[in-house]
Structure formats: C-alpha cells, structure tokens
Amino acid sequence: MQEKDIPEVINFHNNYLGERDFINERELLDRLESNRGIFLVAKDEDEKIVGIKLSFIENDVCLGRGVAVDKNFRRLGIGKELVSIFELELKKFPGVKKYVFASSTQEGVPFHIKLGYKPLILLQSENNVLLEGMDFNMFTVREKLFNKEYNVYQVYLESDKELDLNFLSKIKAQYPELEITYLFEKIL
Ligand SMILES: CC(C)(COP(=O)(O)OP(=O)(O)OC[C@H]1O[C@@H](n2cnc3c(N)ncnc32)[C@H](O)[C@@H]1OP(=O)(O)O)[C@@H](O)C(=O)NCCC(=O)NCCS
What we know:
By secondary structure, this protein is an alpha+beta fold. It folds into two domains: 1-96, Gcn5-related N-acetyltransferase (GNAT) (Aminopeptidase, 3-Layer(aba) Sandwich), CATH 3.40.630; 116-182, Alpha-Beta Plaits (2-Layer Sandwich). Helices cover 30% and strands 34% of the residues. It contains six helices and eight strands. The protein has an eight-stranded mixed sheet, sandwiched between helices. The protein is globular and about 55 Å long. Bound molecules: coenzyme A (COA). Coenzyme A is lined by residues 16-17, 66-69, 74-80, 103, 105, 107-108, 110-111, 114.
C-alpha cells in the first residue's frame, strides 16, 4: 500500500469488513510512515484495488486487521497470496513474537483454517443456563468464566479434530443470542 492508496483501502475495508474506529486515514498514514504495520493491496490491470491484507504491529505483537478480496475475484487464490506475502513480510519484524486476529465470518474462518491456522472458539452469552446446557463433547473445554468487564459468561473451546463449522452454525441458528468468535493465534 502506498500513501495514495489509503482512501481506497479504507473504502474497500469498510465495504467488506465493516467500519472500525482504528481504520482511518490518520492511523494508516501514521503507521505506514513509522513502519508499524503491514499493509498489502492486490490490484487489477486498471490499478483498482481487488484485495487487502492489513495488520498493525504493537510492540511484540502483530494484530491482524482484516483480509478481504473483491466479491468478483474470490476463489482465485488472491487471499491466500496476500496472506503468504504477509507472512514473509512479518519475518522482517524479528521483535514480533505473536500474530493474533479474530474472525467470525463465514468465509474468513474456513479460509484461515485451510491456510493452516487453528482457532480457539469463544462462546459468549449473558445467559449462563444456555451455555451450561450445551454439549461440548466434541471439543476440549479450555476455560469457562464470567467476564466482569463485559458482563458475559464465556467458554473457550478447542477442537483436536477437524473443526465442524456446520455444528457451530447450527448452534448459532438455535441460539441467536449466543456470540461465537474464532480467535487465531500464531506464536512466531
Ligand atoms: C476470506 C476471503 C478473503 C478469501 O479470499 P479468496 O481470495 O477468495 O481466497 P482464496 O481463493 O485464496 O482461497 C484459498 C483457499 O481458502 C479456502 N476458502 C476460501 N474461501 C472460502 C469459503 N468461502 N468457504 C470455504 N473455504 C474457503 C479454500 O480452500 C480456498 O482454496 P480453493 O479455492 O482452492 O478451494 C474472501 O472470501 C473475503 O474477502 N471474504 C469477505 C471478508 C472476510 O470475511 N474476510 C475475513 C476476515 S478475517
């Protein structure tokens, strides 16, 4: 990404990933100038952006800030290529020890699993009865707690086998108030 790309990158981000406070012109320019992030864009032959992969570097952690590909250019390997270039660029930051990101999207979760990332599943609800009543047999329960800051009950699950995303989307359909987030972490 170059400085001139920033407005188009922000539009692209907001279109496919939704608006976020931390994705704004000042933040991206500041990070680009001070080398505190990895910002990649894929362009078509007319120089139009068709893919982005954004991340922020915060001390020894790299925070994934989203990957997205134009709807008309999906399943062509562009997302995969953006992530593999990102992984190479990340090696240029030897002080960074961990890469973390969250995803909940229907495309983002299987995409990252396919690329070799393994998620921790976070289930959240204000209603503990709902969480207690669930059968987590096919998972390893890593932690169960009440988060005082957000006033929610949380269960962290891990899957040793191939993750059954259908099972989790069925749970979501059954309990719409349940929040399911996939947390990805890679130790570098
Ligand atoms: C996720 C996203 C970036 C993937 O981009 P892409 O360029 O289509 O991905 P690729 O073509 O490189 O896919 C690589 C592999 O990931 C897997 N994959 C990609 N999209 C998938 C999907 N929707 N469902 C299941 N698997 C998927 C496939 O195994 C694919 O290989 P294949 O096409 O040979 O089967 C794109 O779907 C997107 O922008 N989605 C909307 C935004 C979003 O949810 N971003 C993730 C936020 S963390």
